[in-house]
């Protein structure tokens, strides 16, 4: 089918004007070739850019507000006066009115900011050294790593996209819907994953954002409009403060979701870097009595259901001393 014809039919579909025959044609066309699904979303992006759902009249609203402030006060009638002469409110009363109004506006805005997420979203959360499996309303399966929060719309998915917000790390197995809703995982930064029905691991923490794709296809949207399509086996990383994605290949997919089985995997990883993973997983700060210890390297799978198990393995493998004081663990050389 020629692109011009399918574009016209799809635009009718997005406008809600497609006939039953056209809807059936689109369904068959998308099943025919997996690439057609990508083309579907490309045309949807084009249609959305040409047909914004809401345009706020910010300039007009601001001008109306300034006109209201600059307008002279209207006279008010004093019912106690029989001659009905006009009486204006005092400057003090006007100032008091605007002070109260401004205070209320600030309080309302602050309340909306802090409570909007709790009202609109249900939060799935894990604590340190804990994992959790969650099944969303659309059938999507999510396994959350330790110290992770997933915010999901409280009243289900509506519109053209299924949007969730991730703070931490999780493995997603996204279900494809009949109405072709895209699944979008947003973060607290300008980095999101747009899913076409697939399985992958998404890491979104302070140090970096990282996606490991196991099956299917995803699109990374980042830094104000940049895009990157991923294929199975790809690893994409955006370090904090960087403007460039790092693309590499995964040796084994299970290396990146070992935490599902209460294990941590290190691949010739310096202790200084491993300490970041340990802090994310257990909430423990690692300190080195000798700076050279930070360069000692780890490789392999380590049982990590409890922090004590992990540090016991470190002590034997690296021949180091381990001592813990509250939430800080000190690593030292054995004499």
UniProtKB/TrEMBL annotation:
Q: Write one Gene Ontology MF term.
A: sigma factor antagonist activity
Pfam families from the UniProt entry: FecR, FecR_C
Q: Which keywords has UniProt assigned to this entry?
A: Membrane, Transmembrane, Transmembrane helix
So which domain of life are we looking at?
Bacteria
Q: Where are the transmembrane segments?
A: 97-115
Give all residue intervals belonging to the FecR protein domain: 123-219
Q: Which residues form the Protein FecR C-terminal domain?
A: 264-331
Record bears the keyword Hydrolase = no
Can you name this protein? Anti-FecI sigma factor, FecR
């Amino acid at each position: 089918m020629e692109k011009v014809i399918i574009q016209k039919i799809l635009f009718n579909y997005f406008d809600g004007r497609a006939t039953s025959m056209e809807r059936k044609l689109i369904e068959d066309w998308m099943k025919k070739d997996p690439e057609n699904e990508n083309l579907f979303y490309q045309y949807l992006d084009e249609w959305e850019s040409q047909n914004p759902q809401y345009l706020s009249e910010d300039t007009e609203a601001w001008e109306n507000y300034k006109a209201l402030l600059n307008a002279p006060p209207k006279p008010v009638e004093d019912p106690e006066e029989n001659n009905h002469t006009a009486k204006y409110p005092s400057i003090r009363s006007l100032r008091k009115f605007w002070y109260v109004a401004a205070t209320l506006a600030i309080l309302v805005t602050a309340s909306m900011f802090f409570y909007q997420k709790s009202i609109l979203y249900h939060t799935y959360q894990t604590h340190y050294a804990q994992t959790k499996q969650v099944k969303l309303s659309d059938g999507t399966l999510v396994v959350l790593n330790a110290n992770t929060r997933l915010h999901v719309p409280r009243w289900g998915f509506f519109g053209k996209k299924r949007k969730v917000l991730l703070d931490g790390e999780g493995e997603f197995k996204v279900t494809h819907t009949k109405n072709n809703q895209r699944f979008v995982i947003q973060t607290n930064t300008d980095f999101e994953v747009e899913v076409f029905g697939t399985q992958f691991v998404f890491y979104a923490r302070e140090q970096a954002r990282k996606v490991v794709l196991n099956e299917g296809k995803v699109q990374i949207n980042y830094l104000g409009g940049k895009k990157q399509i991923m294929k199975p086996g790809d690893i994409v990383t955006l370090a904090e403060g960087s403007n460039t994605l790092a693309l590499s290949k995964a040796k084994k997919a299970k290396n990146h979701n070992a935490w599902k089985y209460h294990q941590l995997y290190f691949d010739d990883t310096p202790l200084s870097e491993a300490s970041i993973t340990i802090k994310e997983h257990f909430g423990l700060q690692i300190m080195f009595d000798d700076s050279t210890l930070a360069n000692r390297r780890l490789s392999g799978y380590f049982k990590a259901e409890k922090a004590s198990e992990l540090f016991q393995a470190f002590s034997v493998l690296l021949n180091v001393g381990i001592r813990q004081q509250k939430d800080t663990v000190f690593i030292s050389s054995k004499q």
